[in-house]
Amino acid sequence: MRVLHVITGLQAGGAEQQLRLLLRHLDMAPEVVTEVATLTNPGAVACAIRMDGTAVHHVGMRSNRDPRALPRLARLIHAGRFDIVHTHLYRAHLYGRAAARLAGVPHLVATEHSLGDRVIEGRRISPGIRTLYLAAERLGAVTIAVSAAVARRLEAWGVPSQRIRTIPNGIDAQKYRFDPDRRARLRAELGIPEDGFVIGAVGRLVHSKGVDLVLRAAAGLPGVTALIVGDGPQRARLTALADHLGVDTRFTGEVPDVAPHLSTMDLLVTPSTEETFGMAVVEGLAAGLPVLYAACPALEELPSTLAPGARRVPPVVRALRPAVLEAVARGHHRLPAAPALDHYDIVRLAGQVAELYHRVLARDAADRPHERGEVQPWTR
User: Fold this and answer.
1) CA–CA separation, 155 and 292 (whole Å)
2) For residue 132, what are the CA distances in angstroms to 98, 135, 318, 373?
3) Which of these, 7, 216, 266, 368, could form a disulfide with 88 (CB 3.0-4.6 Å)?
4) Mapping DSSP to helix (H, G, I), strand (E, B) and coil, where does residue 116 land?
5) How far is CA 174 from the centre of its chain?
6) Which is nearest to 244 in space by CA: 212, 271, 199, 207?
7) Residue 255 DSSP code
8) pLDDT tens for residues 181-215?
9) Which of left, alpha, beta for 353 (phi over 0: left; psi -120 to 50: alpha)?
C-alpha cells in the first residue's frame, strides 16, 4: 500500500510534528509505504522526516492561489502510483484532493488538525473558506478529526457523520520524560539560574495563544523566568511587553524538539482560547509538569482523574495570577506520568490509521462512481 501525505508546509508546527510522528510508526508496518509532498516551505520538519528515511517532495507553491501547483502535484501523484492520498491542513486539503482526483486516485483521506469555532489555522473562517472546504471534502472518502470537538465542528458545517472518524493525535510519552541533565544543560545555555523557577509556554506566537497573559501573570515575581518556545507574528510585540513588564524572559523561536525545554520548565501555562486538541498540554504532562490551561479537548474528553497534574483556569490575568503564585510557592517538583497518556499512545493510534487505510481500499469499488462521479486519471 503506497500512501502520499500532502501537507501545506513543514515548519515546526503541531500538525507538522504530528505527521512526522505518525510516519515513523506507520513505516513500522511493512504493508504501508509512505512519502510526503509539501506544497510550500520545506522547513525543519521536512529535514527531520528525510532523516527518518521518508521521501519528501517539494511542490514549490508560490502563493495561496498558485494554479501551477495543482498539475505539478497531480503529476507527482500519478508518477508515484499511490493508492491513497492523505491530506493535512486547509490548503493541502484543497489542492491535494483535487490533484488526487486528477491523477485518478479515488482513495482520499484527510486529517483535520485546525478547525476551531471561529478560526482555521489562525485565519478567520469566512463563507468563502467554508464553501471551498466543503467542496473539497466531498471529493474524499473520510476525514479524521483529531478530537471529538473537531468532529462536532465538522458535523455542524454539514460534513456527514459517516465520513468522519475520530482518531486523536498521538504522543511518544517516553520522549518527553523529565531529564535532569537536559534541564541543567539548557538552563546553562539560556542563562537561567539552576534554582530559578521557570514558567513556560509552547506554541505559535499569535494572539489566540494568549502568551501575553503568561507574561502578565509572571510580572513582578522575583526569581521567576518566562521561557517562551515558538515563533510567530507577535514575537516583537511580546518581546516589548516582556521588557515593559520587567519579566526575565527567554524567547527560543522555533525548535525542532521541545522535550529539553519541557524538562527546563517548572510550570507550563497554555491560556489559548481555542484549541483543536491541546498537544502542548499533553506533552507537558508527559514531562511531569503541572499545567494550567484554558482549553484542551484532549483532556476535556477524558475523566479529570486521568490528568491530576492539569488544572483548567479561565484565560484572564486575575485567574491565572493566583494559580501561578500557588505553583511558584510550591516550588520545583515533578509529577508521575498521567494515566491520560496511555489514551494517546502513538503506537495504538497509528495502528488505527493503518486500519482505516485498509478499510478505505476495501470499499466496494462499484459504489464509488455513484458516490463521487467517475474519475479520469491524469495522463500528461
Assistant:
1) 30
2) 11, 5, 41, 18
3) 7
4) coil
5) 18
6) 212
7) -
8) 999 999 999 999 999 999 999 998 989 899 999 99
9) alpha
Quick one: pLDDT band at residue 367, thresholds 50, 70, 90? Answer: low
Q: Among 101, 166, 103, 168, which residue's Cα sits nearest to residue 138?
A: 101
Q: How many residues does this entry show for the chain?
A: 380
C-alpha cell at 94: 484543497
Dist. CA 39–CA 96, nearest whole Å = 9
Integer Cα distance of 118 and 134 in angstroms: 16
Q: Is 299 exposed, middle or buried (0-12, 13-18, 19+ CB in 10 A)?
A: buried
C-alpha to C-alpha distances, 334 to 141, 148, 330, 337, nearest whole angstrom: 44, 30, 11, 9
* Spatial separation of the C-alpha atoms in residues 13 and 360, rounded to whole Å: 28
pTM: 0.88
Quick one: cell of 357?
487505510
Q: Which residue segments constitute the domains of the chain, with CATH numbers given?
A: 2-170+345-372 (3.40.50.2000), 173-343 (3.40.50.2000)
Nearest Cα residue to 198 out of 248, 260, 254:
248
Of 124, 118, 35, 41, the C-alpha closest to 80 is 35
Report, as an integer, the average pLDDT of 284-309.
Answer: 95
Q: What is the pLDDT of residues 291-303, one digit of tens each?
A: 999 999 999 989 9
* Residue 148 to residues 50, 204, 275, Cα–Cα distance (Å): 32, 23, 12
pLDDT (tens digit per residue) in 244-256: 999 999 999 988 8
- φ and ψ at residue 32, rounded to 5 degrees: -115, 120
What does the block give as the cell for 337? 506520568
The beta strands (E) that lie in 95-145 are given as 108-112, 119-120, 123-124, 142-145
Cα–Cα distance between 41 and 66 in angstroms, integer? 14
Place of cell 520538519: 45
- If you compute the radius of gyration of the chain from its CA atoms, what whole number of angstroms results? 21
Residue 332 has pLDDT above 80, yes or no: yes
- Residue 195 cell numbers, joined: 534554582
Q: At what angle do helices 14-26 and 44-51 cross, to 10 degrees?
A: 10
What is the C-alpha separation between 229 and 320, in angstroms, rounded? Answer: 19
Q: Is 43 helix (H, G, I), strand (E, B) or coil?
A: coil
